[in-house]
């Protein structure tokens, strides 16, 4: 595994990078450009991370994660929020929390109503459609805050994993008074890997879930109220996980 600064892709390389490498890493300014809005517009979303609810399903006994979760269907230019539903993954993709129907608090309606929310989700869904055929996408949106109030916080307590979807986006919303939180990406069927730390708000890593495995390393406090905020989005064809299980 090589270690270096974030290996950013040019925005024009997004589709080719996903097809050839299984991931693309975009700078914040390019994420805003892709979404057709400004970084200030994206920053209107950030305050909602101060209102996340505790994750009461952590099986490692920790209390370091707060989150909200909502589901959407994107069909062309139309993005529709679905009735609130539990998040479910099979054990094959999440050995720690797989097989559990986890009903989290929904993303606040005031957040979903912000123009930047819909622009961002639709733009990333369109990017997925440029890699695969355009089709209805079943989208799950997860707001996460990992804190260090009890010492160590674990962004991915399940370890290196795939999510059982078609595409995964991880956007850094902010990090404060922490060290760690390194992003690691591994070839699912090969030896190569990358490791880097996303530092700037609205840095984006977009992954082909069938091609790469990913994780984020634990965070440690480096001052008061240390935390790391991310928005994780997934796109899946054919339905949400758990629809037929």
UniProtKB/TrEMBL annotation:
<protein>
    <submittedName>
        <fullName>2OG-Fe dioxygenase family protein</fullName>
    </submittedName>
</protein>
<dbReference type="GO" id="GO:0051213">
    <property type="term" value="F:dioxygenase activity"/>
</dbReference>
<keyword id="KW-0223">Dioxygenase</keyword>
<keyword id="KW-0560">Oxidoreductase</keyword>
<dbReference type="InterPro" id="IPR018724">
    <property type="entry name" value="2OG-Fe_dioxygenase"/>
</dbReference>
<dbReference type="Pfam" id="PF10014">
    <property type="entry name" value="2OG-Fe_Oxy_2"/>
</dbReference>
